Amino acid sequence: xxxxxxxxxxxxxxxxxxxxxxxxxxxxxxxxxxxxxxxxxxxxxxxxxxxxxxxxxxxxxxxxxxxxxxxxxxxxxxxxxxxxxxxxxxxxxxxxxxxxxxxxxxxxxxxxxxxxxxxxxxxxxxxxxxxxxxxxxxxxxxxxxxxxxxxxxxxxxxxxxxxxxxxxxxxxxxxxxxxxxxxxxxxxxxxxxxxxxxxxxxxxxxxxxxxxxxxxxxxxxxxxxxxxxxxxxxxxxxxxxxxxxxxxxxxxxxxxxxxxxxxxxxxxxxxxxxxxxxxxxxxxxxxxxxxxxxxxxxxxxxxxxxxxxxxxxxxxxxxxxxxxxxxxxxxxxxxxxx
Length: 338
Description:
The chain is an alpha/beta fold and about 350 residues long. The protein is built from 12 helices and 12 strands.
């Protein structure tokens, strides 16, 4: 596994591991912490060193799992977690970008992760109730204090990225990027390149849809994907056209799978793009990592780029124009408007 430079002084493996589904979000089987720990250990053995989580996943249990899994192996890992979101008792999420909250959240994450320093601390969402300079200034202070090595953000507009980067340098921006969600190629990724900031591509397999192994009947009421318009029964039928395109390209590469083609497409977007596919099972991890060796031709990349647009739009794509929108919880509330 080769390394990717995300910013000056900050490099990670070409593929990372998204860890949220180990503790939160999907209902495709019972939670199995021991298997998840085996996944993390196997990822390290395969050269994957970036592990992405958040305090809100669980909440808290995902960070605890990663802290447990990396005990005795911490020096081999780059730990990325997120802050600025709170899970309410009713299951809804709210944003909290107040400096005092972020300072407490960082200390709590350090304890759960069993570490002295968080390698990459990411603001999960901008809180419109708090001046962005206050939020980002507090995060910059955590770097100065040595509690955090570098800062990132998830789901910010380019205007917000400009404001943030002027307060304290960004190392990464995290957004969805995949064959069925290429929107970030038009705005956020070019911003990152102009400013020397790395891009973490979450959900490169489309939350499992691009693997061809997900059907509507698998999604229980507690599965976060039921709130994704792309996973409605009609939308999934329409989006089979995208999956057919992945299958077509996979058939040209001996033994390749649609998931691997989807990951290879994400890797081909540039040397500053690090896909972070998630999984809870060792065999799917090994399949995902093997995608790093799959090289797509220019013609194949063009074919994938010209597949039909996905049916169903995620709200964070609309938020590029409307920053008054809410979070990606079951139903969401601003911190001041619950």
